Amino acid sequence: MNDFDVGSRLKELRLRYGMSQRQLADAADVPHGQISMIETNKSSPSVASLRKILGGMNIGMSEFFEPESPQSSDVFFTPSQLRDLTSRIYSGREGTVGKITLKQVGDARAHNLQILHETYEPGADTGDDMLEHVASEGGIVVSGEIELTVGDRTAILKAGDAFLFKSQEPHRFRNVGDRPATVISACSPPYL
């Protein structure tokens, strides 16, 4: 799972939807060359850019990253059973800073609910491009400190503090502390 090929997956979906690179770029309102650069893995999109491009095909991040996810009746999960989404989203992507680890509980699409165990190393940042998507999300900081910006509001949340907001508001997570921060979050419908 750590070698997810964003470029090949984007090309596969674009062709399935019968779109040229130019048509997808126009539908997503991105520069024409950006699609080609991503498909040939010459550029890694930020989460915000990828979300915008996928919107041009009316599909979400969950469908992009879990195309053949088998439905499971599992109820209980050990740490080793959590699905590591880290390399799919933040590994070397433009705009992000520092190490961010994201691990998902079960099949988010089957339940229309994404539960994540998130770890932000000191200095980790989801990027200058604020995240925006159709959902509601909330979470609790388990350890460390995380700076959360939602719209024009910013707060530094410490262990025990929580958040809940509509994800259409631009938002950003940053670890401004000197030790790792751990957050347990939920998002519905699934974002990643």
UniProtKB/TrEMBL annotation:
Residues 10-64 form the HTH cro/C1-type domain. Pfam families: Cupin_2 (PF07883), HTH_3 (PF01381). SUPFAM superfamilies: lambda repressor-like DNA-binding domains, RmlC-like cupins. This is Cupin domain-containing protein. It comes from the Bacteria. InterPro entries: Cro/C1-type_HTH, Cupin_2, Lambda_DNA-bd_dom_sf, RmlC-like_jellyroll, RmlC_Cupin_sf, TransReg_Diox_bact_type. The keyword DNA-binding applies. The lineage of its organism: Bacteria, Pseudomonadati, Pseudomonadota, Alphaproteobacteria, Rhodobacterales. Keywords: DNA-binding. The keyword DNA-binding applies. CDD domains: cupin_XRE_C, HTH_XRE.
